[in-house]
């Protein structure tokens, strides 16, 4: 498997995801949308697995490789949300976001080779990044729901906010697990659990952002609009933590988390 094969897997997976989203919007029950979406997820995972085998390492080192996992987990979270709450539009949004990130990878392919610096050869590296990517996808779905609810103010009800809350609970839980894995990895690789590296600082800010949302909702359950704004702000912090940090002067040459420089 090589990166040149990526476009064909993107086309095949995208067609399945789009067909699943259309079937959901046309109210074709729930089984057909789920089967079509899961078919695309399986095809995309086969590419990731093929890259893992050909690279002889987890495809998690470069930004492009993490975008692979994000594109994979977005429809996973979308289909889980659809099955749980039957929001027909969620598959359309998760499909759109996944295709956008695939398109970015097509336009900006990064170097994918077998080289893996010693610090990344830790057994904690793969679970740390994979758990984080799943958390990012869940919180990405929460962001999409928040934007939709702000746009459709009249449709905001307890069920809609319950979906946001549950997505944030799951996302925050996986962020916490990912941070714990990262701390263990850091201790093994660099001799300390936490160093307030620029990446770690933004990771803490992101974690606190979602914690603020949870606490606000627990004390102001009827005030939906401020809660949704907090949720959107927390997602912006997440974007800075994920890839925005690579463009900050503070991280250039100083961050131990910038591996593809």
Automatic annotation (TrEMBL):
One of its GO terms (cellular component) is plasma membrane. Keywords: Cytochrome c-type biogenesis, Membrane, Transmembrane, Transmembrane helix. This is ABC-type transport system involved in cytochrome c biogenesis permease subunit. It comes from the Bacteria. Its main location: membrane. It holds the Pfam family Cytochrom_C_asm. It is found in: Membrane. One of its GO terms (molecular function) is heme binding. The keyword Transmembrane applies. Residues 88-248 form the Cytochrome c assembly protein domain.
């Amino acid at each position: 498997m090589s990166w040149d094969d990526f476009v064909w897997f993107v086309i095949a997976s995208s067609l399945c995801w789009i067909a699943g989203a259309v079937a959901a919007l046309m109210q074709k029950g729930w089984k057909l949308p789920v089967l079509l979406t899961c078919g695309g997820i399986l095809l995309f995972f086969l590419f990731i697995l093929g890259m893992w085998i050909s690279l002889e390492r987890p495809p998690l080192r470069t930004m492009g490789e993490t975008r692979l996992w994000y594109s994979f987990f977005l429809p996973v979270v979308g289909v889980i949300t659809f099955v749980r709450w039957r929001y027909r539009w969620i598959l359309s949004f998760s499909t759109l976001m996944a295709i956008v990130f695939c398109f970015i990878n097509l336009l900006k392919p990064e170097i994918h080779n077998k080289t893996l610096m010693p610090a990344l050869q830790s057994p904690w590296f793969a679970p740390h990044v994979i758990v984080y990517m799943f958390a990012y996808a869940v919180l990405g779905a929460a962001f999409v729901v928040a934007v939709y609810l702000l746009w459709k103010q009249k449709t905001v009800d307890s069920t809609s906010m319950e979906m946001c809350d549950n997505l944030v609970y799951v996302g925050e839980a996986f962020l916490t697990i990912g941070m714990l894995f990262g701390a263990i990895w850091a201790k093994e690789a660099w001799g300390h659990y936490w160093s307030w590296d620029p990446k770690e600082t933004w990771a803490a800010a992101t974690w606190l952002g979602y914690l603020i949302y949870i606490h606000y909702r627990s004390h102001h359950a009827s005030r939906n609009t401020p809660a949704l704004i907090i949720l959107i702000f927390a997602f912006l912090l997440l974007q800075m933590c994920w890839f925005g940090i690579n463009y900050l002067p503070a991280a250039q040459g100083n961050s131990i988390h910038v591996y593809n420089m």
